[in-house]
Design a protein that fits this description.
Layout: E1 15-18, H1 20-23, H2 29-41, E2 51-53, H3 80-89, E3 93-99, H4 115-125, E4 129-133, H5 142-156, E5 161-164, E6 182-184, E7 196-198, E8 203-205, H6 207-213, E9 226-228, H7 240-252, E10 257-259, H8 268-274, H9 277-283, E11 292-297, E12 300-306, E13 312-318, E14 324-328, E15 334-337, E16 342-345, E17 351-355, E18 362-364, E19 369-373, E20 378-385
Parallel strand pairs: 1-2, 1-10, 2-3, 3-4, 4-5, 5-6, 6-9
Antiparallel strand pairs: 7-8, 11-12, 12-13, 13-20, 14-19, 15-16, 17-18, 17-20
Helix pairs in contact: 2-3, 4-5, 7-8, 7-9
The structure holds alpha-D-galactopyranose.
Alpha-D-galactopyranose (GLA) binds next to loops.
């Protein structure tokens, strides 16, 4: 069975909001409407966030008499269609969640055996995005299960971004490109810098752990087929410096930018991070190249990302618990992306430097870059050849 996904639905990494990281199954129509309102009024929509995705917990415990998935009537008394129309009327897009198994991870009706039925149901609702998870799938092949659903979505006729959430267990980067537009590459994220958070039989991971875990599969990510490093934890309890580093790293990695915080209580610092246009431009760069780690010495890590027109993004991360001095003499370095045959040769080319967190800073690569960097903080520079 060969899958043919809808093409060009995600030429750049998808941007939006998902309910899970903050609300888990405690979602309802008031929350969704308020989140959609705030996505527009806060300015998030104008910098590119457009998908509102309901994760696990939107359904009732059983399907209806016709076998249709039933939105939980207590959480969504007006029905899900009204909500979808509401979100669409704001100029935004709408996504839902289900699972390839018999039940979702939180125990709601799964899609196994109902793939075509559910695909036609989603098309009738006019949704734009489907996150498709991997719980309760014992004994089935991931590639086959995701292919079946991809084909079902095709058959139903409504272009829907297909987000594979298989946690990287069966290396979806090896087979996902014809099937879906993005795929998770790890277990769930946790709002910490680089911790492992144990749940007994499984763990969730700090953002730097996820990046390190999957930095070597960058050749599989690109326009319309993204490595998904999981939804953002910006605004969910880490320090300001850690939130900055998390967002910068996701931009360097060309990961989807799906906010996971409560917009109704978002601080101005969180909003400022999530709407940093220069960072978003690095994430949304048309080449769609996943950045890579250039070096790490003494807990100072440097990640780089080639951008269109010969530009490069460079991020300095202080992974230590103390302040560090960054002293980077460009002339002693060259960045090479062998995979894409791109390089930055600082001996022969001078680049203009913009600090995207501090737009007042301007310099060039003629002189060394020097700065203090607080614990767990980040500096991100955009280099443009002169
Ligand atoms: C899995 C996914 C999460 C979330 C939950 C919902 O753990 O990886 O992103 O969707 O299921 O139950």
């Amino acid at each position: 069975m060969v899958a043919q996904k809808y093409k060009d639905l995600a030429p750049t990494p998808p941007m939006g909001w998902n309910s899970w990281n903050t609300f888990e199954v405690n979602i309802d129509e008031k929350l969704v409407m308020e989140t959609a309102d705030l996505m527009v009024s806060s300015g998030m929509a104008s910098v590119g966030y457009n998908y509102i995705v309901l994760d696990d917990g939107w359904m009732a415990k059983e399907r209806d008499a016709n076998g249709n998935l039933l939105p939980d009537p207590a959480k969504f008394p007006s029905g899900i269609k009204v909500l979808i129309d509401y979100v669409h009327a704001k100029g935004l897009k709408f996504g839902l969640y289900n699972c390839a198994g018999t039940k979702t991870c939180a125990g709601f009706p799964g899609t196994r055996g109902y793939e075509f039925h559910d695909a036609f149901f989603y098309a009738s609702l006019n949704i734009d995005y489907l996150k498709y998870d991997w719980c309760n799938t014992e004994g089935i092949s991931a590639k086959e299960a995701y292919t079946t659903m991809s084909n079902a979505l095709q058959k139903a006729g409504k272009p829907i971004v297909f987000s594979l959430c298989e946690w990287g267990d069966n290396q979806p980067w090896n087979w996902g490109e014809p099937i879906g537009n993005l795929w998770r590459i790890s277990g769930d994220i946790y709002p910490c810098y680089d911790c492992e958070h144990s749940h007994g039989t499984w763990s969730s991971w700090g953002f730097f752990r996820i990046a390190e875990m999957r930095k070597d599969i960058r050749q599989f990510s690109g326009p319309d087929h993204w490595n998904d490093f999981d939804m953002l934890e910006v605004g969910n309890g880490m320090t300001y410096q850690e939130d900055k580093s998390h967002f910068a790293l996701w931009c360097m990695l060309a990961s989807p930018l799906i906010a996971g915080n409560d917009f109704r209580s978002m601080s101005s610092e969180t909003l400022k991070i999530l709407t940093n246009k220069e960072l978003i431009a690095i994430n949304q760069d048309a080449l769609g190249i996943q950045g890579f780690k250039y070096s790490e010495n003494n807990e100072l890590a440097i990640w780089v990302k080639p951008l269109q027109n010969g530009d490069w993004a460079v991020s300095f991360f202080n992974k230590s618990t103390i302040e560090k001095d960054v002293n980077f003499n460009w002339k002693n370095h060259a960045f090479t992306d062998a995979l894409n045959q791109l390089s930055a040769q600082f001996k022969t080319t001078v680049y203009a430097i913009k600090d995207v967190w501090n737009t007042k800073y301007k310099s060039t690569t003629v002189k060394p870059f020097q700065s203090k960097l607080a614990s767990h903080d980040v500096i991100t520079l955009r280099l443009t050849p002169q």
